[in-house]
Write a structure and sequence with these properties.
single chain, about 625 residues, mainly alpha
Length: about 625
């Protein structure tokens, strides 16, 4: 999503500020946000909401993103304007004719509609290429070719060929395909949550959360790195993008970490891991949470509840590793006199907590729809600033927030519209069922092997496409195999979602780590590898909640409490093993015992848990009772 902001900035730098195209682009972006707010309170029919959402989003992409990313002197060229006009004409036609088409479903498309359908798909592919690169458009092109030429492929994945008329007909002027379920999710839940983050940032909420983190943790041992963890988790809820998170908070946290004694590599890695976790952090999480909700037919609160403990354990593991690193190199916190007092930060910015409180109230207690809750949360932001006379949002700031919300949402809009084609073709050809059978056969019915194959597939796919796109593909190709072999459906979806996010920090691509390395001045690959070491918790936790659903807050409360306690100790033990430090370096034998104890704590067996707990407790007490030992937290 950060690429959308860069594209906007590049365009603004090299176009006349008051040119017709620039003004049109800005007001079109504002208009899209206003339209989405309107549909958040006044419900429209599916096509009347989705068609303007997708078409205006694609138009904005052609107005903002250059044909080549290297074109830093981008001006809207004639081909882009022709694409804009074509999308508008197709959108108007669909709006005027979709209702008539409902009664003639299954009939062959007239030639002019076939041409428009082909043009729309081609333009979607080009818009996605401009916004997110070639990876996901190539997947869409590949699946379309597969649908048409299926009988020429190996028997394992072969199917009867489908005519282009059938393929285009199922993707165009229907509530499937381009304007299908995924476009509907984008036009309701996702856009309003992105807009919520944009408005809160424009009001000053981003700075407030960073200052709040500094006030809470800046003075403790290794404080700046711990601030990065808290600030990135809070900022990540607003940005919805690990990459944007690194670029945003990293500009502040990484230099300060370096200044207080952390190495450039460690500082960049900490920010990378903290930023990636922002997509796991309730109550907003990433965009994929709404797709999970739709796929499973469960409430938003159910998913947030299930994901909350995992997010806490993820950040706790990182927090402990940072503290142990600070102990090893003898770091102290920032002097309190150099920090903004926490009391002052809360006094000046406590009103930024109101919109988040309203969001939680409407979802958890009022139990209204997620769309309605997001609408009232967005509306509450400028109203909350009225409490602070010197911090009130001006009309200009509100308009800027509406504009930036649209720009940030553009990659998601085009990804989900194009993903609708992928989902439609997978359903049409039966590829999803075939892939499930293939994966189960490769794993020989072994759950652990299947999970490992799924993890590898998630990371590889996530390297080339954004987490949302990676999750969508995996949800239709891989998740059914996990469910068929007995995995609880919500756990299966969260498993692939988490590993799609991890791809942002995993070599050889690791875009989040490379951005952090650029800020810190550290070697890129070394930063990515260090980030993987610090994020080891998230590589293990999904396996644990697959075998033990209690970590998703499912099952008897006694089991949930015991599993939570074991997980907390396991995360602490794992951090000690990775950092090889507990009041000093660990001898090989103690480190081995800690590693075995950590594994025992992760197993869903009480006797193993008790043995692991006792071993960790005895060794930790013995190591930390030394006068030279330093306790965690300092």
């Amino acid at each position: 999503m950060n690429s959308s902001r860069q594209a906007v900035d590049t365009a603004a730098d090299h176009q006349n500020k008051w040119s017709f195209i620039t003004v049109l682009t800005r007001w079109l972006a504002i208009g899209l946000s206003v339209f989405q707010l309107y549909t958040g309170i006044f419900q429209l029919t599916a096509m009347n909401q989705r068609v303007p959402h997708v078409c205006i989003g694609v138009v904005l992409i052609f107005l903002i993103y250059p044909f080549r990313k290297a074109d830093r002197h981008h001006r809207v060229d004639v081909p882009s304007l022709l694409m804009v006009v074509t999308v508008v004409l197709i959108g108007v036609y669909v709006l005027l004719n979709w209702f008539r088409k409902v009664g003639v479903a299954g009939e062959a498309l007239p030639l002019h509609e076939l041409v428009m359908g082909i043009l729309l798909i081609v333009l979607l592919i080009e818009a996605a290429r401009r916004a997110v690169g070639w990876a996901f458009p190539l997947v869409a092109i590949g699946i379309l070719i597969y649908a048409h030429f299926g009988e020429f492929l190996p028997d394992l994945i072969a199917h009867k060929n489908y005519a282009w008329e059938r393929i285009i007909g199922s993707m165009f002027i229907t509530t499937d395909g381009v304007f299908g379920m995924l476009a509907g999710i984008s036009a309701t839940f996702i856009y309003l949550f992105i807009l919520f983050g944009a408005l809160l940032r424009e009001a000053g909420g981003g700075e407030f959360f960073i200052d709040l983190a500094y006030g809470l943790l800046g003075h403790v041992r290794g404080g700046p790195a711990k601030v990065a963890v808290v600030a990135s988790s809070l900022f990540g809820m607003l940005s919805g993008s690990g990459t944007a998170n690194v670029a945003g908070t990293g500009q502040i946290t990484i230099p300060l970490m370096k200044k207080t004694g952390y190495s450039p590599t460690f500082a960049g890695a900490v920010e990378t891991v903290a930023s990636a976790g922002g997509l796991l952090m309730p109550p907003i999480m990433g965009s994929a949470v709404f797709i999970i909700m739709q796929n499973l037919g469960v409430s938003y609160f159910t998913i947030i509840k299930a994901a909350s403990l995992t997010a806490v354990l993820y950040y706790l593991g990182l927090f402990i590793m940072i503290d142990l690193e600070a102990q090893k190199i003898g770091l102290k916190g920032v002097p309190k006199e150099e920090l903004i007092p926490l009391k002052k930060t809360l006094k000046e910015g406590w009103h930024f907590l109101i919109p988040i409180g309203i969001l939680i109230y409407f979802i958890v207690f009022a139990k209204v729809s997620v769309t309605r809750a997001a609408f009232w949360s967005c509306i509450s932001i400028p109203l909350a600033t009225l409490i602070r006379p010197g911090r009130r949002m001006t009309p200009k700031q509100i308009l800027k927030g509406l504009e930036n919300g649209a720009y940030t949402a553009l990659p998601v809009i085009v990804i989900l519209a194009l993903a609708g084609i992928v989902v439609g073709m997978v359903t049409l050809t039966g590829l999803g069922l075939m892939m499930s059978s293939i994966l189960i056969e490769l794993a020989h019915g072994n759950l652990f092997i299947l999970l490992f194959l799924t993890m590898i597939a998630s990371i590889i796919l996530g390297m080339g496409v954004p987490p949302v796109a990676a999750y969508i593909l995996l949800a239709i190709l891989v998740v059914p195999a996990l469910i068929r072999i007995g995995v609880y459906p919500l756990a299966a979806h969260l498993f692939v979602f988490y590993f799609s996010i991890v791809a942002g920090i995993t070599p050889p691509m690791a875009p989040d780590a490379f951005i952090a390395a650029g800020i810190s001045g550290a070697p890129m690959m070394k930063t990515a590898l260090t980030a993987c070491r610090l994020a080891i918790t998230i590589f293990i936790l999904p396996y644990i909640f697959i075998y033990n659903n209690a970590l998703l807050f499912m099952g008897p409360w006694v089991r949930i409490i015991w599993s939570t306690l074991c997980a907390l100790v396991a995360v602490y033990t794992l951090a000690v093993c990775i950092q090889n430090y507990l009041g000093g370096r660990l001898p090989f034998l103690l480190r081995l015992i800690f590693s075995i104890s950590c594994l025992a704590l992760m197993l869903p067996h009480v006797y193993a848990n008790v043995a692991g707990m006792l071993a960790v407790g005895i060794i930790a007490f013995w190591r930390l009772k030394s006068p030279k030992a330093v306790t965690v937290g300092g």
